[in-house]
Amino acid sequence: MTSPKHLLGIEGLNPVAVTSLLDLAESYVLLNRSGKTQRDSLRGRTLINLFFEDSTRTRTSFELAGKRLGADVINMSVSTSSVTKGETLLDTAATLNAMNCDLLVVRHNRSGAPALLAQKVEASVINAGDGTHEHPTQALLDALTIRRRKGRISGLTVAICGDIAHSRVARSNILLLTMMGNFVRVVGPPTLIPSGIEAAGVTVCHDMEEGLRGADIVMALRLQKERMSGGLIPSSREFFAYYGLDRRKLGFAKPDALVMHPGPMNRGVEIDSDVADDPVRSVIKEQVEMGVAVRMAVLDSLARGDIL
Amino acid sequence: MILFRKIRYLDSAAQALVEGELLVKNGRISDFGPSLGQPDSAKIVEAEGAVLCPGLVDMRASLGEPGFEYRETIASAAAAAAAGGITTIAVLPDSSPPIDDPALVQLIIARGAETGSVSLLPYAAATRGCAGQELAEYGLLKAAGAIAFTDGTKTIASSRLMRLALSYASGFGMRIVQHPEDYELAKGGAATSGARASWMGLPGIPAAAEAICVARDIRLAELADGAVHFAHVTTAEALALIRQGKDKGLRVTCDTAPPYFDLNETAIGGYRTYAKLSPPLRAEADRQAVLAGLRDGTIDAIASDHQPRDADDKRLPFAEASPGGAGLATLLGVTLAQVQSGHLTLPQALALLTARPAAWLGINAGVIAKSAPADLCLFHPERSWQVSAGQMPGKAQNTPFDGRALEGVVLGTWKAGVRVYG
């Protein structure tokens, strides 16, 4: 690849690029379901999954996407506790350059780390989640899931609930959904709403009834316990009582509202099993399926130097 | 003997620029006026259109030495200072070891004298080891030459300790300099709270953390009958409190630094770690308020806030990168930019860099006066240069002004009548 391009966030994409990616992903959904999954568009290319933070589903999803397109896939897990912070990040960049890696999928616990790497590596960098900044492929797979179920990805009312402050999924989704012309509400306790977020055209609610009223889509977010320093909420019990998505609170949304969650779920904290496992309303398993197709589309587009 | 001709100088009495000549004899300003004739054996320095001002008095900088020589040494900082027209630097004590012992205070003064180009005036630690636990030896430190007490870029967090420090220092007629940021609110933050920090996914520090600390410390200064100085003030709210305190007759002073009136928080876009400072860059309205504070005199001085960092301190994910910007070489130029944009008059700008910090420090410097030491800076206000990280004088290259075009080129710097730059 002579002119590497990166996917560092939804910020920087435009509606045309998003639509093209979703269209391409759509074709991969059909292909994946047909069972004829092996393609060779990335044959001879090397994809490295560089994960500085634990992840099972995102890493596996990228691994599968890369393999289905014929790439050589290597997983590198770097435990952040064992490295002396960022110096290693740039050392790693030098190592990866020497390996002639083509596609670099990065997850890091610090916002902006993939952007820093992108300045130093020759490969195309795909942000697989950085700190509390962005998780663009998650937003794309959510958009694909919504578009397939609702037939459109505009004019919908979407309620994103829970720990907005520590959620990169929320940020990427807000950017994508508002860009495509949807109405986004964020619902959570004031201590978990990031400051200044209303400026992006989202409505902030602190009450689930108000936030879910008339919603087409209800997204519950994982309560990022591991990132929550300093007791921003008193207990998970209280959080569930007021913000946990259960049957009663879902009742405020439209009767055909879909339930989404980026996983992994804390059952009984941000979402009740009864709702999460509802075969009609919950599309959580479908989100996982769409993840592979979306990541195939992203990898394929970047490798071909398309859009983005 | 040096005779400066065809220059404009700041007549300290008239607070105006006048055209004329200035004679230096035996390291001191001997005479100045419209025309001084041609004294025998004087070396002539002619610079049409240039301004001769007192050598800049930088009331706050960290120099890296001792302990962080990989970032900056006193020698490299002296070179950067000379290139920036600075002849006096008040040095923060948060080195390694911290300057909390009379012998260390004397060491800094002696190391400054060795440079021959810049006087170093040491701040001493407000608390032993700058650790915020117990008072340092203010009497002995003052006797050794300390100019005031501060924990540098660490806030004196405890209200009780701050009260004691203000009270005990007042017994020696000394000030406490505070890094005004509520410790708990600022802990772990990397940028000013708000939409920008939220979208970048950076832990925020509310701008109000500054005002909360300033409000507390003004009240404590009143309680303790002490004198407090707030370093690098950056917000409208804090400046309003300081203005009130001054109006009330309390012993409250403050300074700011060029990044806070020239840049706003947009400079951190793209995770530019050279723009990661402490306190962090603020919203545009606060930048405007800092300019207003400079204009109306609420702010007593402009300091360089020089914090040398090396590439490894900065080439990190934003939240992990070390805060601080190099500031010696750009102190004059960025301040003059506010003159060009009409926010300050040239006499106002120069006073904020010379006479006013010198008065605050209580030193005989910063003025054009007969028999004053010939610490001088000659600059051309209309010539321009471009700031470029990697090509700055001195060792520290972490300038937040990378790429900025500045008008105001230093043509020469003199320390006690000896040319040290240009």
| Helix/strand/pairing category of chain B | alpha/beta
The percentage of residues in β strands of chain B lies in 15-25%
User: How many strands of chain B?
Assistant: 19
- As laid out across the biggest beta sheet of chain A, the strand order is 7-6-5-8-9
Please give the largest β-sheet of chain A.
Answer: 5 strands, parallel
- Alpha carbon gyration radius of chain A: 19 Å
Low-confidence runs of chain A = none
Number of helices of chain B: 14
Helix content of chain A: 25-40%
Low-pLDDT stretches of chain B: none
Distance between the termini of chain A: 15 Å
Major interchain interface with per-chain residue totals: A-B, 28 and 23 residues
Strand content of chain A: 5-15%
The helix fraction of chain B, in percent, is: 25-40%
- The H-and-E topology of chain A, N to C, reads as HEHEHEHEHEHEEHEHHEHH
Summarize the structure in words.
The complex is a heterodimer of chains A (308) and B (422). Chain A has 308 residues and is of the alpha/beta class. Helix content of chain A is 40%, strand content 15%. In chain A, strands 7-6-5-8-9 form a 5-stranded parallel β-sheet. In chain A, strands 2-1-3-4 form a 4-stranded parallel β-sheet, sandwiched between helices. In chain A, helix 2 crosses helix 11 (284-304) and helix 5 packs across helix 11. Chain A is globular. The two termini of chain A are 15 Å apart. Chain B is an alpha/beta fold. In chain B, 31% of the residues lie in helices and 23% in strands. Chain B contains 14 helices and 19 strands. Chain B has helices spanning 74-83, 102-115, 138-144, 159-170, 183-186, 195-200, 208-224, 236-247, 258-262, 284-296, 311-314, 331-340, 346-353, 355-361; strands spanning 2-11, 16-25, 28-33, 43-46, 51-54, 56-61, 86-91, 119-122, 124-125, 149-150, 176-178, 191-192, 204-205, 228-230, 252-256, 301-302, 376-386, 405-415, 418-421. In chain B, strands 1, 2, 3, 4, 5, 17, 18 and 19 form an 8-stranded mixed β-sheet that branches. In chain B, helix 2 (102-115) runs parallel beside helix 3 (138-144), helix 4 (159-170) crosses helix 7 and helix 7 (208-224) runs parallel beside helix 8. The relative contact order of chain B is 0.17. The model of chain B has no long low-confidence stretch (mean pLDDT 96). The A-B interface holds A 11, 85-87, 89-90, 108, 110-113, 115-116, 130-134, 165, 168, 171, 194-197, 199-200, 229 and B 188, 193-202, 204, 206, 270-271, 312, 315-321.
